[in-house]
Amino acid sequence: MTRRSLAQNSIFSLLAVMMFTFISCKQNAKKENAEETVAEEVAVEETKSEIKISLAQWSIHKMILEEGVDPYTFAEKASKWGFEGLEYVSALYYKELEAANFSEEAMNNWVAKSKAESEKYGLENLLIMVDGQGDIASTDAATRKAAVENHYKWVDAAAALGCHSIRVNLNGTQEVEEWIPASVDGLTQLATYGKEKGINIIVENHGGPSSNGQLLSEVMEKVGMDNVGTLPDFGNFCIKREAGDYYSSKCLEEYDRYKGMEELMPYAKGVSGKSYDFDAEGNETTIDFARIIDIVKDAGYTGYIDVEYEGNVLSEEEGILATKKLIERILAQP
To answer: In total, how many domains does the chain have?
Structure first.
């Protein structure tokens, strides 16, 4: 072999080594990049919240009661706004149902129409907020029993609609010593019926003693049934009003909402994200949503948080979307 051939072979060998090194480095870089991508995807998946967002129908009560919007468009609107679940308000259908004296036919028609709409838009039916059906915490046993039985039709409706719960109010008396035993008895009666139908009976902090987290927790403990729970609401912690009512007059005394949320979350089968107004950065001006949602997460809750806008500055649609955006932003944080 000539000297020139030897030189050429040396050059070829050197080029081969360089090429092999280049390819190996490139493959290693690709491998490292792929591993980094997988790691990033895993990290994102780990921080993604299991909590979903639903729409409480009360958020559009002005549209329905004041503007004449058809309440059966609830699912359509919720779908358009990007929600996954529906939380109905019984009172928004009372004009129709009371006219028929809440007959079995009328209730079945309500279920059929509501279910068809939810299925049409692919949304999950979660619960029915039941109002105006009697005082479950009345101190009179006969009145209490009648109120419990008056809720049976809504338990049946919830089961037929595919909901997990009905939300009830513990109204009847605001004297704590009487309210606790009356509430325990009323809830136990209704939950016994609900258990047969596979439906939870859940209580919202909704005025009077029920807005006292400690007292409502005590009721939960005394009832001690697995289908009885709470629907903690971010905003309903007024325990005393000027006129002695539950919802309307000026609030004179408010329970600490953050303490109340901590006390009610162990029993939560739903969570209500009440909102009123927002600042320029999109934060709620009266409630620290981040602090409350941390309480919800720390309790190990993995269900839905509903959007329940109740403000007067933004329109209902604007308030709903602002609340949803705020909850989404907080849930996305690690």
So the answer is: 2
